[in-house]
Every structure is written in C-alpha cells, then in structure tokens.
From TrEMBL:
Alphabetical list of CDD domains matching this protein: GT35_Glycogen_Phosphorylase
One GO molecular-function entry: glycogen phosphorylase activity
Cofactor(s) listed in the protein's UniProt record: pyridoxal 5'-phosphate
Source organism (scientific name): Penicillium egyptiacum
InterPro entries, per the entry: Glycg_phsphrylas, Glyco_trans_35
EC number of this enzyme: 2.4.1.1
Keywords: Allosteric enzyme, Carbohydrate metabolism, Glycosyltransferase, Pyridoxal phosphate, Transferase
Catalyzed chemical reaction(s): [(1->4)-alpha-D-glucosyl](n) + phosphate = [(1->4)-alpha-D-glucosyl](n-1) + alpha-D-glucose 1-phosphate
Name under which the protein is recorded: Alpha-1,4 glucan phosphorylase
Domain of life: Eukaryota
Amino acid sequence: TFTGLGPAEIKNVEASIPEPLREAWREHKYFVRHVETTLARSLYNCDELAAYSGTALAFRDRLIIEWNKTQQRQTFTDQKRVYYLSLEFLMGRTLDNAMLNVGLKDVARDGLSDLGFRIEDVINQEHDAALGNGGLGRLAACFLDSMATLNYPAWGYGLRYRYGIFKQEIVNGYQVEIPDYWLDNNPWEFPRHEITVDIQFYGNVKKYQDENGRISNSWEDGEIVQAIAYDVPIPGYGTKTTNNLRLWSSKASSGEFDFQKFNAGDYESAVADQQRAETISAVLYPNDNLERGKELRLKQQYFWCAASLFDIVRRFKKTKRAWAEFPDQVAIQLNDTHPTLAIVELQRILIDKEGLEWDEAWNIVTKTFGYTNHTVLPEALEKWSVPLMQNLLPRHLQIIYEVNLFFLQSVEKRFPNDRDILSRVSIIEESHPKMVRMAYLAIIGSHKVNGVAELHSDLLKSTLFKDFVKIYGPDRFTNVTNGITPRRWLHQANPRLSALIAEKLGGYDFLKDLTLLDKVEAFVDDKAFREEWAVIKRENKLRLARHIKATTGFDVNPNALFDVQVKRIHEYKRQQLNIFGVIHRYLSIKAMSAEEKKKVVPRVSIFGGKAAPGYWMAKTIIHLINNVADVVNKDPEVGDLLKVIFIADYNVSKAEIICPASDISEHISTAGTEGSGTSNMKFVLNGGLIIGTCDGANIEITREIGEQNIFLFGNLAEDVEDLRHRHFYGDFKLDPQLERVFDAIKDNVFGDKADFSALTSSIEEHGDYYLVSDDFNSYITTHEMVDEAFQNQEEWLAKSITSVARMGFFSMDRVTNEYADSIWNVEPLDVTD
Ligand code: KOT
C-alpha cells in the first residue's frame, strides 16, 4: 500500500509545522469545526462531499494567513510587481496542491482515514477549475505556481467565467457538450464586493478644452457594466509567499439608467439589462487556436482589461509616485493578444484622465508591457473589425489610429524608399471591412515580444513579424521556451516516482531546482532502482487501466504498450494521422498468420481531447476514433494485440492520471505549426518516451535528452511551404499505405463512409494542407521502431530514466526567472522572516 509520502518529504515539508499544530490536526480539530459550524452538518451526517469541504476549509485557513501576510508585505515594501493578464487560467483542482504547500497531507490522510474516508476519494470530490482551453491556459496556471514559489510579487488577472470549458460526453461516437457550472461551493474564491469598477461601453467621444486650454477628449454616454473582484490565493511551494489571482465578474451597474426603467414600470427590460451585463463573464469561449471575431468576446476582453488596469493604476496612485515611475513599479505581461486593449486603455487613462502628454504617456506604456505570442496559425491571429470597435469602444479606436499614425510616420522616415512596407505593417488592414491587427498593436505597444519555443520564435522573426524586426531591430524579439511546474506534474501526479527520486537525491530539493534531476542519471544502472522505476510505471498503468474500465467498460492489458495522444483536437495536431496509423496497424494484424501475430507487440492506443463545438473537422476526427475503437475492440482476430480507447472529457485532473501511465505519447503536429506544446514535457518528466515531429519544444527536448531517447519522424518545417506549393499545383500522390487505410474507410469498415468523406478528401483532393500523406510512411516506420525498442525492456528503461534526469531545463521556474530577468526586470521579495 503506497501512501505517496516518502520519509524525505516528511523531513522537508513537514519539519516546519510546529508539534501543537500537528496535534490539533491529528485530533481533527479544524476539520470538525468546519463540518459542524461552517457547513452546519454533524459528523454522523458527513458524506464525502462534506469531508472534502471540511478538509478544504481547514487547509484554506492556513493559506489565508500567509496570503494576508504576503499582500501586506508586498504593499509595505512597494517594489515592482508583475501582472499576468490572461483570459484563461486552467487551474485544475486545488486541494491536493494546497496540502502539498501547507505540508499537512500526512496528518490529513490519517485524520480522514480515522473517520472512514480515503483521502484520494475526498480529493476527487473537487470540481476542476477549467477556465481555459488547453496549453495557453495551463501555462498561465503554471506561471502562477512558479511566481509564488520563487517569491515574485505577482498577480494574475482574469475573468471569473460562470461556465468554464464544456464537459465532453461521447454519445454514439459523437462529442456532446455539457455546460460546466463549476462555482457551487467553491471554497477557493473570495468575493470582494467592495472592490468594483464601472466599465463603459458604446457612447461617443466629445472634444473639450480643459482648464489649461488644452484640447482633450472625453468618452461619454453609452452603458455601464460593473466589474466585481473575486480573489483566489496562490500559494508557493516551500515558501510563505501566497500571491493573488483576481478574477472579474460582471454585473449590471445600479446606476440611474436602471432606476429610470424601474420607475417607468419597465421591470422586464430592467431585468433583461441585468442579464445582458452578466452575460459578459458568463462563458469561456471554447476555441483553442481560433479567433472568430464575436462582439461578446471583444466585450469580455475590454471589460477585463479595463477593470484590471483601473485596479493596477489605483494601486500605483496610492504610492503617490510620479507617473514616470510607473514602469519601475509595474510590469504587465500579455498572454497572447487577448489583452492587447490594455495597452490602449493605459494610454487612454494617462492622456484623457491624468492629463499626460501623448509622448510621455506612450513612453510609459511601452516600457510597461510585454507580449507573448503563442501561435503562428493564421486562423488564431486576432483581428477586430473597425466598425465593431468604432461602435463598442469609440475612444479606443481613435487612440489606435493615432498610435498607428505616429508609428507609420516613423517607419516612413526610416524606409523612405519602401512603398509597400507601410501597408504591410499598418495596424489597420485595408480590407472590407477594415480590421485592427491586434498582434501588430501588441508589438508596437510593448518593449519585448517573445515566442514560446526556439523554432517558434525563429519563425516569428523570419515570417509573421519580419518587418517589425527590420523596424525595431532584433532585440525587441526574444525566445522563452515554455515549461511546466514539477510540483503538480511530477510530485502530485506521480508521488511515488517523486518519492523514489527524493530517496536517491536525499530530499525533495529537486522540486525547487529541477536541474538537480541530473543526479538521477548516476542510478541508471542501479538494479534495485531500475526495478522500482519499472514497478512505478506499471502501477501508474494499472491506475489508468482502472480509470478506463470504470469510464468505458473496456479492459486493457497493462503489459501492452500504452500509446497516448491527449490534447485539443485540431487538424494541425494531426490526431487523424494517429488514427490512420491505428487503422493501418489493425489491417496489418488482420492480414497476419497466427505465427506472425505472436511477434506483435500488444498496444493500447489512447486518445483524449475536446473539439471546439463549431469545428466540424475536429468533431469528425473524434467520430472516426470512436468508430475505429468500436470495430477494433470487439474484433476477436485482434484480441489483446490492439485496443483503441477514447477517454472522454480530458482535463487537468485526468492528465494527472494519464501522463504518468504512458509508455509513449504522440506530439505529431505538422512541422512549424505547434508553438511549443507542453504535454510533451509532462510525459517525458513522468518517464514516458515520445514520438514526435521536429516541431515546437520537441526540438529542445531532443537537444536536452539526446536523440537516441526520442522517436522523431516527418518532414521539417523548412520543407513545408514547398510541399504545400507542390500539392497546390497538382503534384500529389497519396501514400500507398494510407491508400489502403482510406480503402477500408470507403468500404464502410468503420461505419458509413459518408461520415468521413470530408476528412479523406481534405487529403486526397484538397491539397493535404497538414501533410498527413507526406509524413505517413515515416510515421509508420517510426512506430515499427517503437515496437522494436519496447521489446528490449532493459534499454527502454534506460531511455526512460536518462530522459527524466535530463528534463531540468523544462521547469516553469527556469521560464519564470527568464521572464523576470529579460522582460519584467523584477526581483523576488525575500520572505525569510
Ligand atoms: C489562441 C487563440 C485562442 C485560444 C488559444 C490560443 C492559443 C493556444 N494559441 N497558442 N496556444 C498554445 O499555447 C501553448 C502555450 O504556449 C503552446 O504550448 C501551444 O503550442 C499553443 O498552441
């Protein structure tokens, strides 16, 4: 029976807890008090949900104390703070993380067990906080964890969506979306009803002469929506720092407007106004790597930016410093272009409200902001229609035009002979309707722009933002390769592996300095260590097998090679390549003699991921995966040699079960399309090998762990454009092995072929934009190498151990320190009292 707590952890984390406090916890004092008073339940009437609430509240009390102290200390020392603006924070569950940070998990486990509960079941009661789509939102959550752990004075700002990313069910092979109402009994948020900001929309701009005779602009009329702050404590690991995540919720303002309607007896329309206001923070847009230009989305963006900026400026003004000092006190990081209006809003506050001159204000603005680009996919690049913005944010549009004018004037001066450059770099695209290019605005309004992996940052400089490199020079553009927090993605998700490593390294220091993992390599030939490593992987596979049995009813063989692809479903991520590969394997097995079958390495192909509700092709891919699973899993000729599983509703807490259980995982995007990818890092850190293309962070993972420890295949980014060009001019021949797969689909082997014709024809007839056919042969061959390698378990194990030992670079702590040094210019606030 494994507890997840090694002796080393008890030494490190628990040592700081005074004995009387431990004693009080042992006697269930805090738990019982919360169950009996806060929840008004008796211990005899305490179910698992109440046990969860009681435990969460007891741990929350501990967090709050450090949280308050941290905030006081940050206000008192008044040094530069970082504000991380993100429309998405994919936090997952909090209780386990809180236990890890507070350090009383062992006592809680015993206490709950005294009362007849298993701590795992209690932890499982919690709803995931799923305020994000995928990698971008999860990166924001990892940032918060690292910033607190490294003692940076940092706040996150986001939206408090009533509905997070939808829950996914699979019905007859199709994705069905269920609303995710997650807010009931959420003990981790604190409403701050006293912290409100009035946010204006629509209206018009009037010019007037101020008392100094200066012509100024004033934004008048329109409607007001109120922003209310909800705060979430963000504890660091092994530190007292507990930072703040502030999420804004929208509400109708109780201004005159409403009263007039009430007085006129127009109750219904007053309620409708109320609902319209609340709609702003009602739901997370469920699109990953796609922007669709909906007015409500723009409203969300402005609402959140304006509330956050008001809050930040209010905090700064309390210090009574001169405006020129603003960038010495405030660094704002834009998580993609979604918060770009914050740039315009700060300029508006400084010139319209605070009376600064344009140049002085703009100088402050550009020193304050940094912009992170996460994707080069054209469909994800934000553009807003000028008429839409004119109507919703008339003053902001004026400011954008002015920023553009000054910018273009400076470009013209520098490049007088380049006629085309002005239209290429203009913030305004001269289309019908005209569009505001948010990425260009973000570049022009920031002092640093970064990509999220080396290849991605290089591509930004050589393609999308090429002209801006010419204009500003290369120094404005930089790379910070993504990372993941080892607290959640190693220690929490894989406590036993973490404990084994801690045992060898003499403690858990590696959770704060992941480069210490390199010491693990010394044990790669240690027999007992290797055996334990293998046992842990097996246990983790069994845990996933139990989850699969419970959720799908299928039995999977834990000795089989677990092959996993879990991420958002997108054509560029190429789950279609994977499922075509599975069909190829299936057809090959069916054609084998009994003798040949004996040589086959049994496989379980595991898929998981959500499709954007309006993304038809992605939904078709999910449908095909489920139909293939249906046929393969009940084919007696195949038996245990191949199973196909689609895990519904992939989310953070499922990732915590899936990542430690993979033998191999797939990161197979068309070269040049994936910004970074971060699940690749999670899988390798948990001792899984990966098959991947030369894309995103796969390239740097290869550099770190060595190319003998990774299975790379496929065309390179530099060849993609040429291949697409050739396809376009008819130079395309379907790979013969893929043709056999398509023939089976067209023979209705996996259900009605008509259901999948869009998928096959996108490859055969419409140019194969994602190069599925071009990479198919290389993909299949590489999977054969995977099978062969898996048969040599001793070597496989060596690859697994070596890779983990070399993953130190991908800690989010390294990432956070790089941002702090090269973009934010902030120092940690020392908290050793
Ligand atoms: C774009 C528009 C809307 C919603 C999400 C996006 C988005 C997500 N753009 N890039 N991402 C992913 O960000 C991750 C974190 O940097 C990367 O690892 C991943 O490659 C991006 O696809």
